[in-house]
Amino acid sequence: MMRKRLAAAVLGCTVAAVTVAMVHPADAATPLPAHVFAPYFEAWTGDNPATLAQQSGAKHLTMAFLQAATKGSCTAYWNGDSGSPVSTSVFGTEIAAIRAGGGDVIPSFGGYTADNTGTEIADSCTSVSSIAAVFQNVITTYDVTRIDLDIEDNSLTNSAGIDRRNKAIKQVEDWAATQGRTVQFSYTLPTTTGGLADSGLAVLRNAVSNNARVDLVNIMTFDYYDGATHQMAADTKTAATGLHDQLGRLYPGKTDAQLWNMVGVTEMIGIDDYGAAETFTTADAPVVAQWATEKGLGLLSFWALQRDNGGCPGVGGSDSCSGVSQSTWQFSKAFASFTSGGAPSGSPSTSPSGSPSTSPSNTIPPCTAPAWNATSVYTGGSTVSYAGHLYRAKWWTQGESPATHSGQWDVWADKGAC
Predict the structure, then answer these.
(1) In this structure, CATH architecture of domain 36-346
(2) What are the residue boundaries of the structural domains of the chain, listed by start?
(3) What value, to the nearest 5°, has the Cα angle with vertex 279 and ends 275 and 280?
(4) What's the pTM?
(5) How confident is the model over 196-230, as pLDDT tens digits?
(6) Does CATH place domain 364-417 in 2.10.10.20?
(7) 96 vs 15, 50, 304, CA distance in Å?
(8) Which end of the chain offers a freer environment for a tag, N or C, measured as fewer CB atoms within 10 Å?
(9) Which active-site residues does the annotation give?
(10) Euclidean distance between CA atoms 353 and 189, whole angstroms
């Protein structure tokens, strides 16, 4: 991810201070929430992800990045560092601690450096089965339910790599079905203010042609590099709306709600790599969070957790601070309430064409959110079940039933049957 990427550094993986069980394949993998806030964690820094998750309140993390150490290799390492293999000895304790705190992680492959150096795993490795084996190894080693694929720069024009990657996704999805595992794949792609460019759409079109299910498309709503001054929250809305419409043409069998749930948004908090003309402010954050909640997006994220502080006013594109005046973890706190809901209904059991499968997992799940209570106080982002539907509060409320309807001023957003 990101147009600016430091060279991979040696990972100093800190052992968590708490004592928890190591991750192992026997653990029961729990699907991610249907709507999840999962900022990127820069794994090369040597920071402890569990510590930062606890400090920031960001329970779910997207961990970046996995890539080959050298072009032509079929082995993935954290940050391309051969001293940091995919192993429970690397991040296993930390991931277990994150889960003990009610969260989880999404390992991410690729990123700008990998995509620019030929070390993104599908660009590097020419064997589809070997690429699939790499994905499966990450899934079973850390018992995760989603893999993120950050594809940009040269990887967007490597047609052979695109085809291998999607074929490998299909193989892993078939394997997961035989194992009874929930496995999702998300693509993280650069965007214009109106949706994906054709290079990003080509990645998805190839996935459809390979019958590879893509569960979520996460657009990087920054680094537009178009010479314009941007209002970043407004451009996020137009970019995501454009993606929603593009997905509707690619997956005509999906409902409007399913299409929005396929949309993810990643901001670059503060001043991005382009400079001050692209500044995502602390005022933008609650606007985007509320809009994403109302639309039912599947993912809200930002680059990166280690930047969520105001330690370098006026500096753009830093890996350790946002460049804007802010309190530490201010963006994380603004986005935290977005996480809600159970696993997306139908995602693992829906075909790439959007046609529902006939498997039992495609039935409507029971409501797991607490029942609405007239005496309870609810704040924006709170979820309740009522009359067989899931509802999410848009703002503070008490005593107003989800059955109350007043047009645009409805306090409760109906998120569908549950």
Answers:
(1) Alpha-Beta Barrel (3.20)
(2) 36-346, 364-417
(3) 145
(4) 0.79
(5) 999 999 999 999 999 999 999 999 999 999 999 99
(6) yes
(7) 11, 9, 21
(8) C
(9) 152
(10) 21
